[in-house]
Write a structure and sequence with these properties.
The chain has about 160 residues and is mostly helical. The chain has 5 helices and no strands. Helix 1 runs antiparallel to helix 2. The chain starts with about 35 loop residues before the first helix and ends in a 10-residue tail after the last helix.
């Protein structure tokens, strides 16, 4: 509740206030929000999701590309340019990070003998003993290359 009593009837609002069409200074009494902010907000949200999920690859690629598309559309339509540009930049960063994760992951896969593992598994077919031998060879390759033990050795 207001601490001031309401004005007497007939005195509120003063005659001629606000002037026809709005408040003093030419401002309209009520202004509709600019169109196109929905696309800018969408670009911003997708850009944030792209950055947060870039390590999942699919999230980085999908959200990044969509953020870039929506950000460009929103920036051209000039509704919420700041959000549109921010979404565009975050989408691009998410996409770039996803590409870097893909390159690093693929090179790690190749360095650990992943291609050899895939070839071995393809040649093994449905023979379970050959599949297990392929896995043991790959584990041994990783242990030898990085001087680590993937599975603890049984103690006598």
């Amino acid at each position: 509740m207001s601490q001031y009593p309401p004005p007497p009837p007939g005195q509120y609002p003063p005659p001629g206030y606000p002037p026809q069409g709005g408040y003093p200074g030419g401002q309209p009494a009520w202004q509709e929000s600019p169109k196109g902010k929905g696309l800018a907000i969408t670009a911003l949200v997708l850009g944030i999701l792209a950055v947060l999920s870039c390590w999942t690859l699919v999230g980085g690629y999908l959200f990044g590309v969509l953020a870039i598309i929506f950000g460009l559309i929103a920036a051209v339509r000039s509704g919420g340019k700041g959000m549109a540009i921010t979404g565009l930049v975050l989408g691009a960063l998410g996409l770039i990070a996803a590409i870097v994760f893909t390159i690093v992951g693929y090179s790690f896969f190749v360095k650990t003998g992943g291609k050899d593992l895939v070839d071995c598994l393809n040649n093994a077919g449905n023979d379970q003993s050959k599949i297990e031998q392929c896995e043991r060879d790959w584990n041994q390759n990783i242990e030898d290359r990085f001087s680590i033990t993937l599975t603890p050795r049984p103690t006598p």
